[in-house]
From TrEMBL:
The protein's name in its UniProt record: alpha-1,2-Mannosidase
Organism of this sequence: Perca flavescens
This protein's GO CC annotations: endoplasmic reticulum membrane
SUPFAM superfamilies, sorted: Seven-hairpin glycosidases (SSF48225)
Functional pathway: Protein modification; protein glycosylation
Entry membrane topology: Single-pass type II membrane protein
Keyword Metal-binding attributed: yes
EC number(s) on file: 3.2.1.-
Localization: Endoplasmic reticulum membrane
A GO BP entry: carbohydrate metabolic process
Catalytic activity annotation: N(4)-(alpha-D-Man-(1->2)-alpha-D-Man-(1->2)-alpha-D-Man-(1->3)-[alpha-D-Man-(1->3)-[alpha-D-Man-(1->2)-alpha-D-Man-(1->6)]-alpha-D-Man-(1->6)]-beta-D-Man-(1->4)-beta-D-GlcNAc-(1->4)-beta-D-GlcNAc)-L-asparaginyl-[protein] (N-glucan mannose isomer 8A1,2,3B1,3) + 3 H2O = N(4)-(alpha-D-Man-(1->3)-[alpha-D-Man-(1->3)-[alpha-D-Man-(1->6)]-alpha-D-Man-(1->6)]-beta-D-Man-(1->4)-beta-D-GlcNAc-(1->4)-beta-D-GlcNAc)-L-asparaginyl-[protein] (N-glucan mannose isomer 5A1,2) + 3 beta-D-mannose; N(4)-(alpha-D-Man-(1->2)-alpha-D-Man-(1->2)-alpha-D-Man-(1->3)-[alpha-D-Man-(1->2)-alpha-D-Man-(1->3)-[alpha-D-Man-(1->2)-alpha-D-Man-(1->6)]-alpha-D-Man-(1->6)]-beta-D-Man-(1->4)-beta-D-GlcNAc-(1->4)-beta-D-GlcNAc)-L-asparaginyl-[protein] (N-glucan mannose isomer 9A1,2,3B1,2,3) + 4 H2O = N(4)-(alpha-D-Man-(1->3)-[alpha-D-Man-(1->3)-[alpha-D-Man-(1->6)]-alpha-D-Man-(1->6)]-beta-D-Man-(1->4)-beta-D-GlcNAc-(1->4)-beta-D-GlcNAc)-L-asparaginyl-[protein] (N-glucan mannose isomer 5A1,2) + 4 beta-D-mannose
């Protein structure tokens, strides 16, 4: 049951004892006027004031009502819109809505951090089908029911209103539709796709010919204008080849528009720079090697050899640079045996070391790798807990390879400090730690999501990496899993879906970041390494929930954050708030599916992963090259491309999908390798001779 929605209103009652005598208009007007004159000046002012207030309130609430309608921001609106055909919306309204959506600033979010905002707007929810081994969900899925999986672009007016709407001068001459369904304005080179409207002039290189044919493009519609059917799981395709195709398509965009830069912006066909270190290229190296993409790998290696330099006056984030670049270089070194990658890793590792020069030995978040100066973020002297405790696998491995102990000593010291620090609750850790005092800050808030997630992952993985000899790590991990079970694991009211919520000063919040979907895989890895069997039971249940986070969305893609209903009812289990509807192409669910399949061989995990790949292809694949993060996983007609392909889509998401579908269990055997939190494989150390 939902409480009735709150309505703010002003009630104005004018009592009139003679109302029964109002039998004609003139008399009524005269009587009203007399009444009005009888009122004191104060009373009249008050009434006028209230009327003015009502008018303002009415005017103000109009846009928000329109917004609710546009964004399906509460359940009733969503269902109502669901009942009508999208084609009922006039094209001109549609195009304005699409463009407004494309222009709206996305919620502030970092790839690791998750969104910084947590608005409490109305909830929308949808119920899904019954999955194997889970309690019944109330209704069949409405995914794809009333929103056709339209693969082409939304219909846009061809009279120039597009430019008007986005505030540009009306100069559009002609809009042509190319073979991939994107619309290209010849005069102004405006490229639109699924609601994004970008001037191609922004791109670093000119857009390709409109006749360009994509190897991985969807089949052409039977008749021009027909929607292209979505890609569906037929079981007949070569899934490994489909992952390779997806990688090639992503790489094509990166190569053409962002080569050597950090991230591809596939809609504007340009690039974004974070550290200026070729982030996507380095994050992708070992994926290309694993997928057998030799030509692509050779080109990328050439760039590393000739262009990559860490001697740059640039501030980098210690954690992100370690997991993506240092981890990527070390992993590629292990796979290829090529010294080039080890040399680069050594150079980078030594340049990151100034971060550890703090009063507490808890590292700063940022380092200038050219100047050798580290500092905390401008607004605080705190570091994020996950960041300082998820760099250990890489630095320890660097010490082992170089026989230089300083890397390992620095990161082991962080673990020693955190191990004995007060402020935990049954093994759960707060999200921040101060670099001066070395103490936890913001105590009392516990999550397995953003800012804490990989702390738990690295406890287990360091223990495995080091040959299961470091008891403190195991102790902290086991205690934390008990803490998770005790404080954070709950079930939904309607169908008893198991999820991991958050604790804020003893108040439970049934909210789970997609980031938490790393946990089933980590729990399964622990169970595989001899930890209690109930870890695996929990992994199975949480895997189901992460699957539902995709399955129940209209695009088949998970939102960034989900809230769960704990009320016993036949209502929805999952609630998605408007600001949480985006998808950043994150890997955590496919990562866990990979572990679950390796350990159980249950084919359903592969099928779930396959559905996710199809959904990425249907809703995030950008004609011309690249995949994009999207704004709204609940709107298959206009998912709202964000114009960014995160490096982890190539580094992690596609790699885990490939490993999930591969029958070769010796390909990165989980008894020989551990994956860092960016999916870069590092060897489990050989046991010392006894
Ligand atoms: C990646 O950089 C890593 O997986 C990290 O641990 C969490 N955030 C992103 C992917 O979501």
């Amino acid at each position: 049951m939902y409480p009735p929605s709150r309505k703010d209103f002003i009630s104005l009652t004018l009592n009139d004892p003679h109302s029964h005598t109002y039998n004609n208009g003139k008399h009524r007007r005269q009587s009203c006027w007399r009444k009005w004159k009888q009122l004191s000046r104060l009373q009249r002012s008050l009434i006028l004031f209230l009327l003015a207030l009502l008018l303002i309130f009415g005017l103000l609430s109009y846009p928000s009502m329109t917004e609710q309608w546009r964004g399906f921001s509460d359940r009733e609106d969503w269902l109502e819109l669901n009942d009508r055909e999208v084609k009922d919306i006039p094209p001109e309204v549609k195009s304005v809505l699409y463009q407004a959506e494309a222009k709206a600033p996305p919620p502030v979010a970092g790839p690791h951090m998750g969104p910084a905002v947590d608005p409490d707007a109305g909830a929308d929810a949808v119920v899904g089908p019954r999955a194997p081994n889970v309690p019944i969900l109330a209704k069949p899925p409405i995914k794809n029911k009333t929103f056709p999986n339209k693969r082409g672009p939304p219909s846009l007016p061809k009279d120039g209103n597009i430019s008007d709407t986005v505030g540009r001068k009306k100069q559009v001459q002609e809009v042509v539709q190319d073979e991939e369904g994107e619309e290209v304005d010849k005069e102004k080179k405006i490229v639109s796709w699924r609601g994004a409207l970008i001037e191609a002039d922004q791109a670093t290189e000119p857009p390709p010919s409109t006749n360009e044919k994509e190897a991985a493009a969807p089949p052409a519609p039977a008749n021009p204008g027909d929607p292209v059917p979505p890609e569906v799981s037929t079981g007949a395709v070569d899934r490994l080849e489909a992952v390779r195709d997806a990688f090639r398509h992503a790489w094509k965009g990166y190569k053409e528009y962002a080569w050597g830069h950090d991230e591809l912006k596939p809609i504007s066909r340009s690039f974004g720079e974070w550290f200026g270190l070729g982030l996507t290229l380095i994050d992708s190296l070992d994926t290309m090697w694993i997928l057998g993409l030799k030509e692509e790998f050779a080109e990328a290696k050439d760039w590393v050899e000739k262009e990559l330099s860490f001697d740059k006056n640039v501030d980098v984030n210690l954690f992100e640079t370690t997991i993506r670049i240092l981890g990527g270089l070390l992993s590629t070194y292990h796979l290829t045996g090529d010294q080039l990658f080890l040399e680069k890793a050594k150079d980078l590792g030594s340049r990151l070391m100034p971060a550890f020069k703090t009063p507490s030995k808890i590292p700063f978040s940022d380092v200038n790798i050219g100047k050798g100066i580290a500092h905390p973020p401008r607004w605080t002297s705190d570091s994020t807990l996950a960041e300082v405790t998820s760099i250990q696998l890489e630095f320890r491995e660097l010490s082992r390879l170089t026989q230089e102990p300083q890397y390992q000593e620095a990161v082991n010291e962080v673990m020693r400090l955190v191990h004995k620090l007060p402020g935990k609750r049954d093994g759960l850790v707060p999200m921040f730690i101060n670099t001066n005092s070395g103490q936890f800050t913001h105590k009392g808030v516990f999550t397995l999501g953003a800012r804490a997630d990989s702390y738990y992952e690295y406890l287990l993985k360091q223990w495995i990496q080091g040959g299961k000899a470091e008891d403190d790590l195991l102790e902290d991990y086991l205690q934390a899993v008990e803490g998770v079970k005790k404080h954070l694991v709950r079930q939904t009211g309607p169908s008893r879906l198991t999820f991991v919520g958050e604790l804020s000063h003893s108040r439970f919040n049934p909210k789970m970041d997609h980031l938490v979907c790393f946990l089933p895989g980590t729990l399964a890895l622990g169970a595989h390494n001899g930890l209690p069997g109930d870890h695996m039971d929990l992994a199975v249940q949480l895997m189901e929930t992460c699957h539902q986070m995709y399955q129940q969305m209209e695009t088949g893609l998970s939102p960034e954050i989900v809230h769960f209903s704990m009320q016993a009812s036949d209502g929805p289990n999952l609630i998605v708030k408007p600001a949480d509807r985006h998808n950043l192409l994150r890997p955590e669910t496919v990562e866990s599916l990979f572990y679950m399949y390796r350990f159980t061989k249950d084919p359903k995990y592969r099928d779930w992963g396959w559905d996710i790949l199809l959904s990425f292809n249907n809703y995030t694949k950008v004609p011309g090259g690249g995949y994009t993060s999207i704004n709204n996983v609940r709107d298959p007609v206009n998912p709202g491309p964000r114009d960014k392909m995160e490096s982890f889509f190539l580094g992690e998401t596609l790699k885990y999908l490939y490993l999930l579908f591969s029958d070769d269990t010796e390909l990165l055997s989980l008894d020989k390798y551990i994956f860092n939190t960016e999916a870069h494989a590092l060897p489990i150390w050989p046991s010392p001779p006894k």
